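Recall that a protein's primary structure is simply its ordered list of amino acids. Everything else, from secondary elements to tertiary packing, is in principle encoded there. The following example makes that idea concrete.
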Amino acid sequence: MGLFKWAESKIKTLNIWDFSVLKIYLLLIGMIIGAYLSSFVKQYLTVIIVIIVIALVWLMYKMFK
C-alpha cells in the first residue's frame, strides 16, 4: 500500500467536524506565520499554540485510530 492510498483510506474516515478542526488548525498556523509581527498575534500566541496542539492531537487521533 502506497502513501497516497493509505492517506486516501484515512481521509475517508473523517467527517465534516474533523475537516472543520483541520481548517481551524491551518488558519491558526497561517495567523502565526503571516502576522507574527502583529501585536495581537503576539499577545495571544500561547492561547493559539494551545489550540493548535489540541487540534493536531485530535486529527492525529482520528487518523491513526
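The chain has one domain: 3-64. The mean pLDDT is 84.
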